[in-house]
Specification:
Blueprint lengths: L8 E8 L5 E2 L8 E2 L5 H6 L4 H5 L3 E10 L6 H15 L4 E7 L5 H11 L6 E4 L12 H12 L7 E5 L2 E4 L4 E2 L8 E2 L7 E4 L2 E4 L26 E5 L7 H9 L3 E6 L7 H12 L3 E6 L14 E2 L6 H13 L1
Parallel strand pairs: 1-4, 1-5, 5-6, 6-7, 13-14, 14-15, 15-16
Antiparallel strand pairs: 2-3, 7-8, 8-11, 9-10, 11-12
Helix pairs in contact: 4-8, 6-7
Length: about 325
Amino acid sequence: MFNAKKIQKVVVLGTGGTIAGTGSSALDHTAYTAGQLSVQHLLDAMPGLQDSLQGHELVCEQLAQLDSKDMGHATWQVLAQRCVHWLSQAEVDAIVITHGTDTLEESAWFLHRVLDSHKPVVLTCAMRPATALAPDGPQNLMDAMAVACDAMSRGVLAVCAGRIHSALEVQKVHPYRLDAFSSGESGPLGFVEQGTVRWRGTAPGPAVHTRTSCALTVSVAEWPWVAVMHSHAGADARQVSAWVSAGVKGLVVAGTGNGTLHQDVQTALAKAQDQGVAVRLVTRCAEGQIVGETASFQTAPRGLNAFKARISLMLELLG
């Protein structure tokens, strides 16, 4: 008896964001409300979508409708749980996630740290709302589909303005322009050009790291509180004492230059560390990373900015 081959699927998970936003004027790119249109609505409005799917069946699921500035741990947990659910199914080849731009890099890094799958999970977004005169969301979503269906794609990726970024390197670097994301000194992993994926050299697999699967099951109320602070001229060390008194479990500190700290802040952090607070150090510089060893505090994993380092420290304390 002939058994027909199962049609493979791409799952699209919607979380809101500017890509699903609406405004009162097609000419206003800033006065809009994020997370208004369903992910199904976004897909239905895309001409030529089937061409980018390469024969895949599309499955949609709306997980949240929020502005990503308001992204929280509870939504992260649900998002990760649904990713695990879909990635475990043999007929699912990839996941695409529509997301706001403001915290996309943080969600990407969180998913990278908790998911255990080599199937691609591709986050995409928009800098203009869906009601703009020339919205960028449809093209970004089309490009994300092309990356999701590409045989070389692996792990958690971000796609915006025709560029493919890794979860480790991606960072929002501009508040308005369409090409708002960068991979810093490393550069993007590749590009999407007229629906075709072009990798820079060999498409890399996901970076090796220790995954923290307990974040999928432990109540978010029990996730340790980790805060981010910056050292700067005239820094006031009282904020460190306030955090410690309030019960903070970890502090990620963005130091000046090669991880240097204002002496008052350094003294306060040393006291906090003696009281059991985990301290991790990064540089606040936009490029480069801390070179050499620091005398007092452990350096965060190389390549992480302060906000991704916060996620890693939170998961370290959790796991």
